[in-house]
Specification:
The structure holds 2 protein chains of 2 kinds. Chain A is of the alpha+beta class. Chain A has one helix spanning 45-58; strands spanning 11-14, 18-26, 29-35, 80-84. Chain A has a 3-stranded antiparallel beta sheet, with no helix packed on it. Chain A is elongated. Chain B has a single domain (3-151), classed as BH3618-like (Roll). Chain B has 3 helices and 13 strands; from the N terminus they run βββββββαβαβββββα. In chain B, strands 4, 5, 6, 7, 9, 10, 11, 12 and 13 form a 9-stranded antiparallel beta sheet that branches. A 3-stranded antiparallel beta sheet of chain B has the order 1-2-3, with no helix packed on it. The chains are: A alpha+beta, B mainly beta. Chains A and B meet through helix 1 and strand 4 of A and strand 7, strand 8, helix 2 and strand 9 of B. Strand 4 (80-84) of chain A pairs parallel with strand 8 of chain B.
């Protein structure tokens, strides 16, 4: 692993278009800013690990899923999406 | 590569370890530019083995053994809302009025009461492109029970 020491306000450049900024250090935590191309998803590690585990577990399912005896052909409400602006 | 051309030049053939040979309408192909989180894959399709079932399969077109049961969260969690940051919405190319389809992955289990859905990381499909996203809405459980005990009791009493 490459290890780099940074002070608050200093940056690390990954490739030509990803900039990681150490914004603020406070006690045991550091606030980090990431500027990356829009197409690159960024995750907190623990969430990524949890979702990976759920996906892998889901993919273990056998072909036969149970008949739950419900008529679910009825229309349901369309998906609801809200977009929130980020705190600056 | 498990897909190829069938006799009908308009359809793809998927060799599924679960369902055998399945013809796929190319119009139903969903491109996942970033794959599923931690699992990858770039091309999937939805396979419904039973039109009356709430479950369908998000099936890889690249790996005949990779398929996840999914469901429309409205079936089980009425009022389920996906909340995205502006940056994430831009990444997906959607806004609040975009026509999207929303799915959640399902962990199947030997008994219904152990079936859970991942409400925290739903799958958004828009214009033939899919993304698994992190839902910013509070209460998006990682393992939400699809058939809580009271629900099973209700349906057996009916």
């Amino acid at each position: 692993m490459l290890k780099i020491t940074r002070r608050a306000g200093e940056r690390i450049i990954l490739g030509d278009d990803i900039v990681v900024t150490l914004l603020e250090i406070s006690g045991q935590s550091a606030r980090i800013g990431i500027d990356a191309p829009r197409s690159i998803p960024v995750y907190r590690e623990e969430i990524w690990v949890e979702v990976k585990r759920e996906n892998e577990a889901a993919a273990q399912a056998a072909a036969a899923l149970p008949d739950i005896g419900e008529d679910t052909a009825a229309a349901v409400a369309p998906p609801s999406v809200t977009v929130t602006s980020e705190p600056q | 590569m498990t897909t190829g051309q069938s006799d009908d030049p308009q359809s793809l053939v998927l060799e599924s370890t679960r369902f055998g040979r399945v013809e796929i309408d190319p119009k139903t192909v969903i491109e996942f530019p970033d794959g599923l989180i931690g699992v990858g894959g770039s091309r999937y399709t939805l396979i419904a083995t039973d039109q009356k079932s709430p479950f369908s399969w998000l099936h890889s077109l690249e790996d005949g053994g990779l398929a996840l049961p999914v469901t429309n969260p409205e079936h089980f969690f009425p009022g389920y809302t996906l909340e995205l940051s502006e940056a994430e919405a831009k990444r997906l190319g959607i806004d609040e009025s975009s026509p999207i389809a929303l799915y959640v992955t399902v962990r199947a289990a030997p008994v219904l009461s152990d079936f859970v859905a991942n409400l925290r990381a739903p799958i958004v499909v828009h214009d033939g492109v899919g993304h698994q996203v992190i839902n910013q809405a509070p209460g998006g459980e990682l393992r939400a029970s699809l058939f809580p005990a009271e629900r099973i009791a209700d349906s057996s009493a009916a």
